[in-house]
Specification:
single chain; alpha/beta; Rossmann fold; five-stranded parallel β-sheet; three-stranded antiparallel β-sheet; 8 strands; 51% helix; 17% strand; binds 2'-deoxycytidine-5'-monophosphate
Length: 225
């Protein structure tokens, strides 16, 4: 099996790069952020406030009432909650902020851990997230930590949200990017941090195609595919 871990903050470009590399190499792309987003959406729909005080209730809700599935349809990862495809619904700004909050709860991380390990054990994967190189796949063949300047990341995220018809301002997105960075790096369980053996890639000035080519070359150099 080949396991590639790509971590980084919101807007670093990790998901687009990981998805494209997996597609060209014919291996599976696993977007773990989508799993946290699906849990957050399920909490929102269930009317439960996402907070540390409600952790026991949230854990009960997820383990008792949520069947979370990841399926690949035409090379694209789809996420299902109780059989419903929520791949588009989880992409809103609000769900992203809620995902950052729900992901700070240790029981939610535990709930998703086995699913992520299982996917990596049975498939050649490029998995992206916040704790892949540090917690989920500490023995990954390659670990990459991607980042970019906050202003660049906010602009990328703003463009994506506007393209989807969301009404947001660039200044609000920048504030929220900084807020999510803070939440994701300061939580106690599995915070966003570069693994000591991960390669750092600043994508602020990098061309997408060059980045993809660079990562593919790196993976091919393993001689495992
Ligand atoms: O990558 P994303 O923006 O879709 O992730 C949404 C949130 O989920 C992010 O703010 C932090 C959390 N997350 C996490 O804690 N661990 C992961 N492996 C992936 C995402």
């Amino acid at each position: 099996m080949i396991n590639i871990a790509i971590d980084g903050p919101v807007g670093s470009g990790k998901s687009s790069v990981a998805r494209e590399c997996a597609k060209r190499l014919g291996i599976m792309y696993v977007d773990t952020g989508a799993m946290y987003r699906a849990c957050a959406l399920f909490c929102i729909r269930s009317g439960i406030e996402i907070s540390p005080e409600n952790e026991a209730q949230i854990a009960e809700l997820l383990t008792g009432k949520l069947t979370l599935d990841i399926r690949i349809v035409d090379d694209v990862q789809h996420v299902y909650i109780n059989g419903e495809d929520v791949s588009a619904d989880i992409r809103t700004h609000g769900v992203g902020m809620a995902a950052s909050m729900v992901s700070a709860l240790p029981s939610v991380r535990k709930f998703l851990l086995d699913k992520q390990l299982d996917l990596a054990a049975h498939n050649n994967v490029i998995m992206d997230g916040r704790d892949i190189g540090t917690v989920i796949l500490p023995n990954a063949d390659i670990k990459i930590f991607m980042s970019a300047r906050p202003e660049v990341r906010a602009k990328r995220r703003y463009d994506e949200l506007i393209a989807k018809g969301e009404k947001v301002t660039l200044s609000q997105v920048l504030i929220d990017v900084n807020k999510r960075d803070f939440q994701d790096t300061h939580r106690e369980t599995a915070p966003l941090v570069q693994a000591p053996d991960a390669m750092f890639l600043d994508t602020s000035e990098l061309d997408f195609e060059q980045t993809v080519e660079g990562v593919i070359e790196l993976i091919r150099s393993l001689d495992k595919l």
